[in-house]
Amino acid sequence: MSAPGAVAAPAAAATRLPRWWPLAAITLLAALLRLPTLGLQSFWYDEAFTPVHVLHPSLSATLHSMVHTENSPPLWYLTAWVDSRILGTGAFALRLPSALAGIATVPVAWGICRELAGRRAANLCALLVAVNPLFVWYSQEARVYGLFILMAALAMLCFARALNSPTGGRMALFAAAGSLAMLTHYFAVFLLIPMVLILLLRRESRRTAVWATGVLVVVGLALLPLISAQGGHGTQWIGQWPLSERIEAILQYYLLGTSGEPLGHGVQALVLLPLLAGAGYGAWLMLDIAPTLRRPRAGGEGEDEESRRARRGSGAALAVAAGGVLIPLGLAAAGADYLAPRNLVGAMIPVTALVAILVVSPPTGRWGTALAATIALAFLMITVDVNLSPRLQRGNWQGVASAIGPAHGSRAITTVELGSAPLEYYIPPLHNLRPGSSAVVQEIVETGYAPLRESAAQPPAPGFHLVSRSNVDGLITYRFRSAQPVAVPEAVLRGHVITLAHPEVLVAPGTPTVAP
Predict the structure, then answer these.
(1) How far apart are alpha carbons 328 and 337 in whole angstroms?
(2) Each residue of 97-138: pLDDT tens digit?
């Protein structure tokens, strides 16, 4: 009678899935959301600026351009330079490092919550990072932010491991990961400050944390000359954006992604509601544990111990998230204003860890599971919608360039500043017309987006007339021609850009010009 049972038990054990299968499935999902559509969208200004103005065949020339045109540390530019030497400067090639960083962030996020609260929170945290539209967006952008998210997550994972067991080896890994994060983005320091303080304030970790803190301080001081040389290039727009709107955008970015504004406040509220409900319910259980939740499990481990671990983990995640958001906010209020929502993407990792811990780490039961699934599904639907809806994607400057056609010497193109680098990338070898000079052209193409100037359809100079108007996913092009070449001053071309935005004038190398 006992033989069948003895055979059935090993058979059941053999068919049981390994414990790591949820993480493997979630990581595969992250790859499927990032890689197949990596080249779907056009480069926008910042992405196109990198291959046009920063990347050069020489590494020294690339680093020189980084110092004089960019406002970030060197690690991502070194990565982009190596990538461009191997794979070229196409959209897929330049975005691939960000995509790989975004995929790698998923198991790192899993490890963070596994250290802080346990396996259930780890699975949810990994899932949210895999499908969140903000993380997917920056996994498909040829800029620093995807790598910044990964390095911020690595630093937090090493911090969590050092928090649980402050050995010399773990503290060395924390110092190394924190240094790499600072070499990727300057805002990493705001995440590291609460981590360092927590490790220094705990008696168990103070001794080993002192020298790790010293390493981070040395790396930070070494970056000061670079920060001074870069001088805040290209950050003037931040101060022109009202601080209250930027604070509102931080929440919008996390819930809907950077392009989610057209979805409206209604969709944002629908995503926010289950997130607040799950986090609020979990926080209530943590702060007001009922006596029935203190009963020990059948396996022997007390339920209260699991709750205490979740409380400690949520406190650590909250401290890191607060440092990453509130310190830049305080500096902005004090006058050192570099608070752009995209600079806070690294802080969204501890935010996601906190949400995951609150939603599922306490005994929230079926409600917690249902709310977790709702949050993940909402994020996934928005991410898929971005791939299907041009209105949620980057401006289609590649389509505009295709409509304009190849560069030639009898044409001038006026565009908004955000269109100059993409048009230079997609229509080589365009370049800016020298200020004060005149271009001798028979065709003037004006590009921009709504709202348009009232004079948009009027000829930019005598002798020209409108021959066509096109709309490429919201980017508008007017084409004017004259019967013979006309010398049009740069100031006239610049003053007739069709959009109420800073104008640029582009011409091909062979365009005849008249010096001022």
Answers:
(1) 8
(2) 999 999 999 999 999 999 999 999 999 999 999 999 999 999
